[in-house]
Amino acid sequence: RIRRDLLIDNSSRSIEWFKTFHTLINTGKNEGRGFTVNIPWSGEAMGDAEYLAAWRCVVEPVLDQFRPDLILVSCGFDAAAGHWNAVGGYNLSSQMFGWMTARLAARYPVVLILEGGYNLAAISDAAECCVRALLTLQCPTTAAAATTSDDDDAERQFAASFDRLANDSARRTLKRVCQIQQRYWSTVDWAPAFLTQNQYVQSARLRRQFADLSVERRDQASGGGEPTCRTNLVVVKSEPQSSADGSASSNDCSTSSSSGDVAC
């Protein structure tokens, strides 16, 4: 059996050595062509909203099409908030690392290999969130966003990212990544970069409901009787959580009973 490996990499804007190898046009070579997916950020510092956009535009669509047997994560935390500009100066919350881990572990066997980082507090917090995600398979939620304690700044940042659009630099990068990778992966799409994560989740739920309704109506029409409006969508948590500014936020995990896919 031919072994096929897939590499997906998010690389920082500031480290020159990585720029040599982590370019947009590097998609692999020979039998491995098309199995390297680079997302080389540049320009503005990236945070949770930008990584959420990369996830829904590139990472998850490619994984859905590739259907890996095992995922190995080189788990470095240089992008965690608290690092200086020389190693990226990015602003990912610990909860974002946990969210990505939970999304992977809910669907595939996952191994995290601790790599690096330079801020011990940031590394500890991010690693804790990742291990908790592996143990519980639960995405972090915005429950802590309603609190006022200074200790919950990270939770509020994470909650706010679900209602924030990715910055212009991230959207430009994702557009180029999708244009290059579409020749290998038909599922990638940069249009979701123009939605917030909450908007994307809500639109996905509506699409699933309409798809289930269409199937139900077709089945009723072929078998006789009146069509009904029942769907097969099961929402594990449907109550919206309040964000820091009092607006509704719906980034709890839900799952479709037909596929088992977690949607956060």
TrEMBL record:
Q: Which GO terms describe its cellular component?
A: histone deacetylase complex
An MF annotation (GO) of this entry: histone deacetylase activity, hydrolytic mechanism
Question: In its UniProt record, which GO terms are filed under biological process?
Answer: epigenetic regulation of gene expression
The identity of this protein, by name, is histone deacetylase
Sorted alphabetically, which keywords does the UniProt record give? Chromatin regulator, Hydrolase, Nucleus, Repressor, Transcription, Transcription regulation
Biased segments, Low complexity type: 247-264
What is the E.C. number?
3.5.1.98
Ranges for the Histone deacetylase domain?
26-134
Q: Which SUPFAM superfamilies does the record match to this protein?
A: Arginase/deacetylase (SSF52768)
Upper taxonomic lineage: Eukaryota, Metazoa, Ecdysozoa, Nematoda, Enoplea
Species for this entry: Romanomermis culicivorax (Nematode worm)
Identify its protein family.
Belongs to the histone deacetylase family. HD type 2 subfamily.
Q: Which Pfam families match?
A: Hist_deacetyl
Matches recorded under InterPro entries: His_deacetylse_dom, His_deacetylse_dom_sf, Ureohydrolase_dom_sf
- The record's region (Disordered) falls at 240-264
Report the subcellular localization.
Nucleus
Sorted alphabetically, which PANTHER family does this protein's record hold?
HISTONE DEACETYLASE (PTHR10625:SF5), HISTONE DEACETYLASE HDAC1-RELATED (PTHR10625)
> What catalytic activity does the UniProt entry give for this protein?
N(6)-acetyl-L-lysyl-[histone] + H2O = L-lysyl-[histone] + acetate
